[in-house]
Structure formats: structure tokens, C-alpha cells
Amino acid sequence: MPVNIKEFLADSQLLLNAVGEGVYGFDRDGNAVFVNPASEQMTGWKSEELLGKNIHKYHHHTHANGEVYPSEECSIYNTMRDGVERKITDEVFWRKDGTSFPVEYTSTPVFKDGELIGAVAVFRDVSQQRLADSNLRAALKKVQDLTEKLQAENSYLQEEINENWHGSGLEGNSPKFLAMLQQIKLVAQTDSTVLILGENGTGKELVARNLHQLSQRHNTPLVKVNCAAFSSNLLESELFGHEKGAFTGASEKRR
Description:
Elements: H1 2-10, H2 13-18, E1 22-27, E2 32-35, H3 37-43, H4 47-50, H5 56-59, H6 75-82, E3 86-94, E4 100-112, E5 115-125, H7 127-163, H8 175-188, H9 204-214, H10 232-240
Antiparallel strand pairs: 1-2, 1-5, 3-4, 4-5
Helix pairs in contact: 8-9
């Protein structure tokens, strides 16, 4: 049997030696019959140290948590027994120096003339991928924490503004002033258009801001329009809409 699997792999040896993934070939007894250079580089075990031997005890003997990994439970060796392909993404291989590294590997059965003659294990070191994934998760966690913090601060500030809205520029204690504040509170709860009258510098914009803050639209922007910058016709169009063709440049209906 070992001769058959060796002959089978010999036809592809040049290709297997050139690939960047580690490749092991096993006979039905679980002994290594092929070890490519990438495997040697990743594990530190030379092919002459592994060929003809059960290499589970060299590179796959222990789980990442330190528990013993019996060969009877090894996915690679089970493939050699039952001929079923397996893909593993959460195990480690062990180097000759005693250190381990995370791997992803595929254990594929090899058949010749319908007979199972061994298996081929193809593996790759995913240390850098795991590190990148870990860094990405950490970065996303920081973004999530920052987002939650900003949302909490925003909610707090909104509550402070709602509770102390009169402190945003409107200050006074005269009867008329207090009556105006009461009117602002009442009007802000409605969906009506509000006209604010007053001389320049008397605080009309402050009243508008407080109306907006107390209204149902407080979570949306307050859009300010400088009416003096528009002609009467254009201002009417901007505020109340227009029909298509009502004036030069009115290319569509607007409400």
C-alpha cells in the first residue's frame, strides 16, 4: 500500500513542492510518505525526520488548551480510515521547538482503482489572519463603545436642553416675559405656523430656537432663511412652493 500512495503523489511532486501551503501524504497506516518544503518551513520538522513515521505525535499531539489529542480523534487519521474529506478551521499544529500555531487544513482521501490507499492533508498557518481578525474586532469594539458613549452624551445633553431650555438665551422675570414663555410652551406642542414679531435685536431667533427645541421636530435641524436676501416672489416660492413654468427657471412643480 505505501508504494501505491507514493507513486500517486510522485506524479504531482513538483507541483506539491511549489505550493505555499503545507502538504502531508499518508498511507493507510498513518505513516508519512510525503512532506513538502512548505511543511518543513512552517513546522521546523524535516522530511527525513517524519517520513515513514506516524507524525501525529510530532505536530498534532495536543490541543491549543494543552489537552492531549489522541490520534484516534484526529480528523486526518479518521479520513484515512473512512475515506471522508474533512475541513478543520480551529486547531493548532506544533513546531519542533515546542511552539504552536493556528491552522486551517483539509484532509482528503486518496483512492486508486476505487480503493482507499491513503490521505493528503493540506494546511496553512493562519496566525496573521487571526491577528488581523483580533485587531479588527478590537477596533470595532472601540468604535461601538465610542458610539454608545456619544449617544449617551447626546441623550444627556438633549435632556439638559429640554429641562433647561429657557437658559439658552431667554432670560427675564417680568410678567410679560413669563407670559411669553408660557405661550412658547403651549404653541410648541402644536403643528401650527407661528409668526414671531418684534424689533431688531429683541430675540426673535431665540424664541424660534426655543419653539423648535420644545416641538416634536426637536430631533431635526432648524433651518434658518434670511428673508431679506430674497425677492418677494422668490421668497413666496421658497416658502410656499410653485407650479412648473411659473417663472424662469421653474422647471418642475415644487411644494
